Amino acid sequence: MNGFSFWTIWLRNGRVWKKHILATLIGNLGQPLLFLLAMGYGLGRDMAQVDGLTYLQFIAPGLVASAVMYSAALETTYGSYTRLTVQKTYEAILMTPLGVVDLVLGEIVWGASKGVLSGVIMLLALPLFGVIPSLWVVALLPVLFLSGMFFSACGLIMTALAKNYDFFNYFTSLVITPLFLFSGIFFPVQTMAPPVRGFLEMLPLTPIVSLARILCYGRFGEPILLKILGSLLATGCAVWLAGYLLRRRLIQ
Amino acid sequence: MIPANSQQKKISGSHGSQAVVSVVGLTKRFGERLAVDNISFAIQRGRCVGFLGPNGAGKTTCINMLLGLVEKSAGEIRIFDLEAPRFHREIKARIGVVPQADSLDPDLSVQENLRTYAGYFRIPRRIARTRVEELLHFFALHNRRDEIIEHLSGGQRRRLLLARALLNEPELLILDEPTIGLDPQARHLIWERLAILQAQGTTMLLTSHYLDEVSRLSQQVLILDHGQVVVQGEPRQLITDMVGLEVFEVDGTAAELDALAASFRQCNATQERVGDKLYVYAREDCSHLVKVLGEAGSWVRRPANLEDLFIQLTGRSLRES
Asked: What is the ipTM of this complex?
């Protein structure tokens, strides 16, 4: 019965989000859409096919995955940190029957939901660029949610450790931006030299980008089970660590 | 809503031995520092207990331990006869808290703040709606229901925090500096509402640096200093026992005050000199000495109060931790 208490926190965030809906959507979707336009349409026109896809088709699914990552990670860093410090929302919530576990789940599921929403809007925008996803794309949604959970949890870990907003610069510059550039969104990881390839495939966004490409076009060449299991495991660990660290920060 | 006198009598006649909060040997260490040192107290149903103490005395740590926001190092806490922190979910469902710092949702309206908070208590929507209406009226906020929090005055925010704390119809209300920074009108409105709640039988734990507020609301006080309970009891009784009946505050030159001090030795009173001021705490009727004072510069004669007791027990030096 209490297992779903975190839902009330999700609803609270949703209620606040509705008031700033336009600003957050533009903030979260501006970058991937502009990249799709500049790299895919601008640069990609004169490029050879990659992996049997036009360059625009090649990068589109990965940019969907990156939109999820950005939305989720930004929500649980800047957004959650504001709730933790300036607005004292967490303090107010902990004075009710809700506990730290509810708080952590509510925040992470909320961040993941925002991530999936950004991903879905990106997917809906793809036909405007001439990219038509297959029906398999429906199966991509739970994958995007899983990835949203992972990056929300990472963001919340940063929030639990942060002393001020500047701290998040480390996270975006050293984690999020490199993942955006090196997770196989813009170039195929499979053709890299084996040690480089091995390293890049260990990055948390890489399997999601591969799965996005596979499910977006329904082209099942690579094994997918390992990617899903690996992502599940990484997400489980990240959620646990976020809970542990936030509890340490909130309960003295 | 009007305070019901009959109800008040019934409550005051029935505060038997039922403890809402009972704390034994509560201790909290932050590293080397002992913030709360072996504290024991109980709060009986329907009573208001004032928690007093200089800054850093351990009041907030103590309250946070009751709420599970700080883990206790040792001791036992029982609230509603349930063990804390084991049953915190159940306990917190029956507590209302007015925090010292404003933790309202700034993006939401008055009404949305209350409804969202009601959601945390899993209060069904329909019931929440009527309760929100009642509370908005009770705290004179019904005309501001759709206002964004930013546009509210300090007094309105405090009232909203109080309304929020009452959504779950708490049996125990914890008030941490409920009128800090408010103008006299706003404070009086809050006191009036708290008196009504008391008459209805709500148990309260109040911390405040405004000792007039504590005297007005509390039937029992507990003075903390350096993490320990210095004294606890009924405030009037404590003042009479430890300070006296009335206080004379006299300004004057050292010579004048010396002369006065000598005269006052004829009466059962303790004296204190602070700068060029003499305080005389009279334990009996010293009216016959008033004529001596007539010759002195300026003086006041007033009943002994909680502030005198507080200063006597915790000293005059500043606490800036």
From this structure: 0.87
